Amino acid sequence: MFSILGAAIRRRPFTSPVHTPLLLQRLIIILNNQRTVRKMSAIAKRLEGKTVVITGASSGIGRSCAFEFARTAPNHSLRLILTARRIDTLKEVAAKIKEEVGAGVQVLPVKLDVSDPEAVRNFVPGLPEEWRDIHVLVNNAGLVKGVAKAPEILESDMNVMFSTNVTGLINMTQAILPIFKSRGSQGGSGDIIMIGSIAGREAYPGGSIYCATKAAVRAFTDALRRELIATRIRVMEVDPGQVETEFSVVRFYGDKAKADAVYAGCDPLTPDDIAEVVVFVAGRRENVVVADTLIYPNHQAAATVMHRKGT
Ligand SMILES: NC(=O)c1ccc[n+]([C@@H]2O[C@H](COP(=O)([O-])OP(=O)(O)OC[C@H]3O[C@@H](n4cnc5c(N)ncnc54)[C@H](OP(=O)(O)O)[C@@H]3O)[C@@H](O)[C@H]2O)c1
């Protein structure tokens, strides 16, 4: 009987069962409710009411993460705090998210240079009160500069990579952790998701400093997970292989032709591919920690092992 009713409702929901007997009316209400419940995915329910901070949300993987969180839980009072140095770009991202998913997701663009320790210290106190109850931190902001080998590496490139990828990420973590640690009765809860890299697992020539920064992220992440073992705080790392973003344009100081050559003959990942994994790990049941993930495109098998079409 339930399946017959279900089929009828799927064809045409009963919205005004005025002439229907009482018992049947009750069954119709239950089945219509079941239809609504079924529409809400488990991941959307788990993200309900959460506040997510994404660093480096003006481009590439961070930008895609913002859209993916919003698309996954569009009607669930999600709050997204999008940070980067390019505030105008963040405002455009915020407007596009609103246009796409509507008012169920609130977006707050915040100008923040993670390499500036004072700016990071002022980040949480500078947020409006109702945005401070942060549940998820996606530590994504990062960059690579140049392909120089020692002893030709520019000191300025070295400094910007370490202050963004390493101390920036650590300072952000330290800024948010007290919020997590004060939540609940079990030592705290919340998610810290680090965007590492295959470069943190395998060093390659011409990438020594970038690889060193991502290896540092990996060591910090592993130590932090151990330090927080008695809490409900999840520390997770997502390591992409080759992804086509502004990453290579930044590496070659704005030279688009050199950046395009990196991907010639390859079929790289898209930033959306990584964002799907980030939202997946944040959306697992609270007792599930997807601690460590390595993601390659199909043509890649190591940091420098790629198949290029035509070679
Ligand atoms: N693309 C790849 O192949 C690849 C592979 C493995 C790992 N990753 C990692 O993925 C992360 C995202 O990179 P992506 O590929 O998406 O590159 P992207 O398109 O260049 O995006 C980098 C983001 O980081 C932000 N950023 C850079 N320096 C910052 C700073 N000092 N303060 C705040 N934000 C800063 C940029 O925003 P503003 O310029 O507006 O500040 C931008 O939003 C990085 O950690 C990168 O190391 C990338």
UniProtKB/TrEMBL annotation:
Superkingdom, taxonomy of origin: Eukaryota
SMART domains attached to this UniProt entry: PKS_KR (SM00822)
UniProt KW Oxidoreductase keyword: yes
InterPro entries given in the database record: KR_dom, NAD(P)-bd_dom_sf, Sc_DH/Rdtase_CS, SDR_fam
Pfam families in the record: adh_short
GO MF term set: oxidoreductase activity, acting on the CH-OH group of donors, NAD or NADP as acceptor
Signal peptide: none
Keyword check for NADP: yes
PROSITE patterns recorded: ADH_SHORT (PS00061)
CDD domains: SDR_c5
Ranges of residues in domain Ketoreductase: 50-246
UniProt keyword terms in alphabetical order: NADP, Oxidoreductase
Family according to the record: Belongs to the short-chain dehydrogenases/reductases (SDR) family.
The protein's name: Short-chain dehydrogenase
Organism: Diplogelasinospora grovesii
